[in-house]
Amino acid sequence: MKAHARLTARFEGGRTVLRELRSMAPLTLLPKRGTGVTAVVHLVNSATSPLGGDELKLTIRVGAGASLRLSGVAATIALPGLHGEGSVSEVDVVVEAGGSLEYLPEPTVVTARARHSAVLRASLAEDAYLHTREVLVLGRAGEQPGSLVTTQHVTRGEVPVLRQTLEIGDSTLDSSLAHLAGRRVLATDLVVGGPSVPEASGEWWSRTSLAAGGTLTTSLAPDAVTALKVFESP
C-alpha cells in the first residue's frame, strides 16, 4: 500500500485556517472544530498499518504566522509483511516565518519480525517554532521486537539543528534491548524556537541543548507512560 496525506495551514483573518486537508487511507486527518488562533487536527490510522511493503507519507506545511497542533489518536503498530518486506513512513515538514507546529503522534510499536523505517524531515524558518515527539516501543508485551531504523533531520534557516539515526535489530530480545539498557521504550522530545530551558538529567533521562538552538530530551523506560512523564516535568 502506498499512501500520501497532506495538510496545509495558513494564517488568515487573525486565525489559522486549513487550506489543504487530504487524507489517504490509512492516514486520516480529522480537524477539530474551533475558532482559536491554533488549528487542531487529529491523525488517525484508519487501517492496520504499517504492514510490511507499505509506504506512507505525510506532508505538513505551516504558513507564515500560522499555528498548528497535529496529534495522534492511537498507537501505530508496525507489522511484518507476508514475505519479509519492510515498511516505510515519512513525515515531511515545512514551517515558514513566525509559524508554529506541534506534531505529537502516539507511540510506534515495532512487532516481532517487522522491519520498519521512519523518517522525519523538518525545514524551519529562523523564527519558527517546532515541538515534536517520538515514542518507540520495542515489541508488544512478552514479544521480541522487530527491526527499526528511525531518522530525524531538522534544519533552522539553512543550519542543521538535529541529524540523528537510530538502528535496532531483532536477532533476539536480549540483544535488541541491550541497545536500550534493557528497557523497551525510547522516547525523544524535540523543541526548537521555544523559551530557553536549562539542561537537566535524571535516572534514565536527559535534556540537552542543541548547538543551533532548541533542546532534545531523551528518556528510556520500561513502558510508554513512564517515559512520557519525563516530558511533563518542568
UniProtKB/TrEMBL annotation:
Entries under Pfam families matching the protein: UreD (PF01774)
Coiled-coil positions: none
Oligomer and partners: UreD, UreF and UreG form a complex that acts as a GTP-hydrolysis-dependent molecular chaperone, activating the urease apoprotein by helping to assemble the nickel containing metallocenter of UreC. The UreE protein probably delivers the nickel.
Protein name: Urease accessory protein UreD
Stretch forming the signal peptide: none
Subcellular location: Cytoplasm
Its biological purpose: Required for maturation of urease via the functional incorporation of the urease nickel metallocenter.
Keyword Membrane listed: no
Taxonomic lineage from the root: Bacteria, Bacillati, Actinomycetota, Actinomycetes, Pseudonocardiales
Keywords: Chaperone, Cytoplasm, Nickel insertion
Family affiliation: Belongs to the UreD family.
